């Protein structure tokens, strides 16, 4: 009897599987890291600064991996069997936007919101123009545009304060009331009487320690800065 012919695998099959498995592990690690940081951000112990920088880098890392290895990675949308980094990008974008809303005191939110909308619209136009397969799934493009806008909102809002080296203007106000933020984030807010750029009483975010210390009627000192991207912002502190 003739021996059965040996079965030959196509060259490179084992290597492709190993690379695919590695890509899946990398994507899983990125997504878990983003989800873990997002969960941590719900608590007062969340250290802003370095970890916000890490959250900012996650979508950029995903984009670099997708552009460098398009056959191994993808970001949610489109077709293909590459490892999906979309979850990490979505969670990171949402975390950045939420922390910006809860941590930063802007004099006006309009410029930041306008920038985020503009970025989302540009992304939407480019996606419709170049991703023909997505035109039949409009809700996916709209969802992606929403999170791209959220990422732009959070990133610019954080960098506007982190990169600001302007000299602060020192002003004073008085606490009218205080209350916890109406969200799942651990936010603490005080209502201040009219001061500086505000003609009416306005809410401001403060740290938990300052929130517990301040009482209605207490005077507070405010440091008003120009912002690295010309979006004025301020911080609240107890007057000495």
What report would you give on this structure?
The radius of gyration is 24 Å and the shape is elongated. With 240 residues, the protein is α+β, with helices and mostly antiparallel strands. The strands form 2 sheets. Strands 5-4-3-6-7 form a 5-stranded antiparallel beta sheet. It has a two-stranded parallel ribbon with strand order 1-2. A hairpin with a 7-residue loop joins strand 3 and strand 4. It has 2 domains: 148 residues, no CATH class; 70 residues, OB fold (Dihydrolipoamide Acetyltransferase, E2P) (Beta Barrel).
Task: Briefly summarize what is shown.
49% of the residues lie in helices and 16% in strands. With 240 residues, it is α+β, with helices and mostly antiparallel strands.
């Amino acid at each position: 009897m003739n021996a059965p012919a040996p079965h030959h695998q196509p060259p490179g099959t084992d290597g492709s599987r190993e690379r695919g498995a590695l890509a899946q592990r990398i994507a899983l690690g990125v997504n878990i890291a983003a989800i873990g940081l997002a969960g941590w951000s719900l608590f007062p112990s969340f250290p802003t600064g370095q970890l916000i920088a890490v959250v900012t880098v996650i979508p950029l890392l995903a984009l670099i991996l997708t552009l460098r290895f398009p056959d191994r990675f993808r970001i949610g949308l489109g077709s293909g069997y590459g490892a999906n980094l979309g979850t990490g990008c979505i969670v990171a974008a949402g975390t950045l936007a939420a922390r910006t809303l809860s941590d930063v005191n802007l004099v006006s939110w309009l410029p930041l919101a306008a920038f985020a909308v503009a970025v989302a619209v540009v992304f939407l136009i480019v996606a419709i123009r170049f991703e023909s397969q997505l035109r039949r799934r409009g809700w996916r493009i709209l969802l992606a545009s929403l999170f791209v806008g959220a990422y732009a909102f959070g990133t610019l809002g954080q960098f506007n304060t982190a990169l600001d080296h302007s000299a602060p203007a020192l002003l004073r106000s008085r606490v009218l009331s205080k209350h916890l933020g109406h969200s799942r984030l651990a936010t603490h807010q005080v209502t201040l009487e009219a001061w500086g750029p505000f003609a009416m009483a306005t809410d401001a975010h403060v740290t938990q320690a300052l929130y517990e210390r301040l009482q209605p009627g207490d005077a507070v000192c405010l440091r008003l800065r120009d912002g690295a991207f010309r979006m004025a912002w301020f911080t609240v502190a107890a007057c000495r």
